[in-house]
Specification:
Arc Repressor Mutant, subunit A
Amino acid sequence: MVLRAKLELRQGQSLVMTPQLQQAIKLLQMSNVELSQFVEGELERNPLLDRPEQDEDLPQLNGEAERASPVQDRLDRLDTDLDNVYADEAPADRQARETVAGIADSGWSSLAGGGGGGFADSLDGDLHGTLRQPVSLHEHLEQQLSEAALPPAERLIGSHLIGMLDEAGYLRADLAELAQQLGTEPEAIEACLRKIQGFDPPGIAARDLKECLAIQLEAQGDLTLEMEALLDNLPLLAQRDFGKLRRACEVDADELREMVAKIRRLNPKPGAGFGEGPVPLVVPDVFVRAAPDGSWRVELNSETLPRVLVNNHYYAEVSRHGTRDQDREYLSECLANANWLVKSLEQRARTILKVAREIVRQQDPFLVQGVQFLRPLNLRKVADAIEMHESTVSRVTANKYMATPRGTFEMKYFFTTAIASVEGGESYSAEAVRHRIRELVENETPANVLSDDRIVELLRDSGIDIARRTVAKYREALGILSSVQRRREKLESR
């Protein structure tokens, strides 16, 4: 075989993902919070990007007006002076009035916010800023540990145990490994753990659900032998198998019912209520409102659209002066990036609006009549209607929310799989079928608990062709127990 070098010229097509194109794709799938953070970073990095002034329409005060105090400005509009208004006031009242006027002239009047509320109103306005942050679980337990007056070694072990608790308040660590790590005996770890388990809230620092419930029952004085037997058979309680529970605990039905009621009043996650921050509000990207003519008006939420401007005047001013080649190259790159960012933001807004309008058009029955009329919809159907690629529609609907008269939903909520119709008519969406299953279970009676086979029959009578395993899958996804467990629960609650 002879090896030789040669040159070949080939022609082909390929898609090159430029950095600008990659940036546009990333912007498309960002949520409004992520987009705002990204734009803030670009404003810091790029000197040619500016934020639009929101106070451009406010009148500019001249120097004389800025020097005038709020009190003097009001006095200038009066046709008399304060000496005539307060002609009969006492000297002490006059001195107090002049003192208040002096405070206002010194700038302290701005504390009133608008000039009429006074100092108390300013305190009310900043009240939320002075409130203390919620105490976390670790802080709550550390405070109790410091008040327990333990020896330094036990305090160190206790602090280490507190730091290993999860959000629910459970200790998931192995005590033997922890003792080896801290260089102490397992008995010392166990003794310190029992002290922490006596802290508030009851049930804290338990290693499993059984121990958590036992700690709470012991604190209430309800940890009897029968209750211990019940805790040993928690899987039977989860299965609602009350017959086996009665035999295991050696109690009658009334006693078992009382014991189960005590268990239900306990807290299986004692640490979950501490240090919870405020639930983040979902800010919709699109508003859907009913128009007077019966159609739907789809609008972008302008509050979630960051606005940036390209400062061409600054670019021209800097370029006019003699700069180095590196500086000119840097400015040209900044200008290109700024123009591309503005263009990408505008394209992103138009694409979101276009996809949202098509979703509203497809799901008009849902908006008018409710979730049971939600149509099956996929990405391809929307992409073909607006002449875009499926991947683009997928990125647009990711992490975007739509506020409708039926509530605020993520855009992906409107894309559901299709369930065939019995008569070959229009298909049903999976979400509508799940809603129908929930309605059937909620309306059942203790004497007529619906099995999965019976639910299949009722759905087929309604025109929905569905398999039994699909009903079971939807029922489990909705958190609905089996028919046997529901029947036991309804009989026990009677």
